[in-house]
Amino acid sequence: MQVFIGNEMTANENKKSFSDLWPTYKRFIPYVKPDSSLIWLDYLMIIIAVATNTAMIWLIGKPFNLLQNEEYELVANALILFAIVVLINQLVQFTGGLLTNKIGLRSIGRLRNAIIARTLFLSFPVAGQLPKGDLMARLTNDIDRIKISIVDTPIYIVSHLLTFVIYTAMMFWIDVKLALIALLVSIIFVIHQKLFSTPKRHAAENFFDRNGKLLAMEEQALSNMRGVSTYSAEALVTKLHSRVFADARYWSLRERALDVGFNVSFTLLLYLTGLVIVLFGVDGIQEGRFGVGHLVSFLLYLGYLNVPARGMAELLFQSLGNLGAATRVLEVFDAQPIVENMPQAQELEVKEGAVELKELGFSYPGGSDIFKNVSLQVAPGETIALVGPSGVGKSTLAILLMRFYDPQHGQILIDGVDIRDCTIESLRKNVSVVWQEPFLVNDTIKANMLMVKPDATDEQILTACKHSFAWEFINALEQGLQTRIGADGLTLSTGQIQRLALAQAFLRDAPILILDEATSALDSLSEINVISALNKLRLSRTTFIIAHRFSSIKDADRVVYFNEDGSITVGKHIELIKSHKGYKQAVEWQTREVD
């Protein structure tokens, strides 16, 4: 199984070279291909822009030749023609710029959507290995860099190559000897690019790594401000942030210093080359090989070769540096889910809702056994309470029922069918789960309800909200169901959030119901009301209640107590109080009395 490697750069990645550019970036072509028609139109704009640029440079030198030949009456015509070409050039460049930006933004949108989709379909065991802050770095900074390499770079390569070829041809047309001297000197620029490429790549990769760690640290600190304040750890967290930021800043500054050093030294070499050409150009004028205007145009062609020459070097330079970003994004695409549909998986149709565990054995990767040969039969419509100390497998059973993991041994059957033989989608459609952290998005209450059942009617939503005792507070809101609740239900109280999560479970109306500490944040009255509603709901549903509060499980048909040795003890509440020492002590500790 392949999973995220987090922020660790492997040895192979540190050895990436120009030969890795195409194999890596070609995997992103599908995210640009839908805009192929716009890309071809952009290329047409480039061709026109290069042609008009070439004409502009030639026309700049034209007046000098006219003046040298004392053809003063033709100078105005040359300047008017120059102005017309400039206008066409600017219109074309404006259009090309808009097209390039549009293609880039559309490609970014597809890539970001693909990463989000891939992460969600990986399910939380795999996606959870990647800190949210680091994932955000891949969604933003890394994708922006990839966009440069897969959208901007191909477009600029065409522009630079076309410019380089035409400008060089014009230089040879003006004077072959002078053009050969210029090309001979240009070898220095190739050596110059080689000297900077490896340090640049190394600095870029290290920056991606450190920046991902920085964003992950910031996300963790901001999402746990209450804990930070509780332990007066503000100074320690701030100090840690400063240290992590300093590490990221070092590599960012190093990368930028290399960029600046590259550009400055490149410009210096360009000016020195120009001085050499001027010296040889004066000889050409004296020998009568060309005029002053030709030398001016030659120098401009040579000078403007700075753009394609430096651009080509920078594009390769930049694309190599961006390989680190591309690799980090590909890690998300290449990560594999822990569970997948079997080749012959069938749609699950739950008719009764019987659940059976047969000699179940499970442990998390690298961990000790959670279950050891656990067997349990749950009848259709039966309510089972899952209790026991923290970390013994109560929520793990819910996770296995949802197939976020598969057991190493044994089976889980629903209506006699091994859930591994069913499609994951059909399995989860038949199970409603209310987790300790409810599933709420930054949208309206109605939109959050429709997330669990997109085709639900307003009447069904209203009924679900009333059953969960959420309608009372929803109806009191100024906009009712159209009220936006913020990220993770930020504008609601904890109790309101949990009642809304229960409303989602009512609306889902699945034959199997799992409540993972679903009433832990409710006050006593609300808990009594919700449990009363759940008692009605569970009459025709198989229900698993995971709870530490024994007041919510007394009415369960049976209680499953998870022992710390990986086994379970099953019985009714009263029976376990009499026969199971651990269960009795837990109840006494909470209630201070035995019922």
Topology:
Layout: H1 21-25, H2 36-68, H3 75-122, H4 124-127, H5 132-174, H6 176-185, H7 187-223, H8 225-230, H9 234-287, H10 292-304, H11 306-321, H12 323-334, E1 355-363, E2 369-378, E3 383-387, H13 394-401, E4 409-414, E5 417-418, H14 424-429, E6 431-434, H15 445-452, H16 458-467, H17 471-476, H18 494-508, E7 512-516, H19 524-537, E8 542-546, E9 558-562, E10 568-571, H20 573-579, H21 581-591
Parallel strand pairs: 3-8, 3-9, 6-7, 7-8
Antiparallel strand pairs: 1-2, 1-4, 4-5, 9-10
Helix pairs in contact: 2-3, 2-5, 2-10, 3-5, 5-6, 5-7, 5-10, 5-11, 5-12, 6-9, 7-9, 7-11, 9-10, 15-18, 16-18, 20-21
Q: What is the count of DSSP helices, taking H or I runs of 4+ residues?
A: 21
Distance between the termini: 49 Å
**Strand fraction band?**
5-15%
For the secondary structure, the number of strands is: 10
Fraction of residues in H or I helices: 55-70%
Q: By helix and strand content, what is the structural category?
A: alpha/beta
State the strand order across the main sheet. 6-7-8-3-9-10
What is the average per-residue confidence, as pLDDT, rounded to a whole number?
81
Radius of gyration: 34 Å
Major sheet characteristics: 6 strands, mixed
Q: Shape from CA axes?
A: elongated
What are the low-pLDDT stretches, counting only 5+ consecutive residues below 50?
1-14
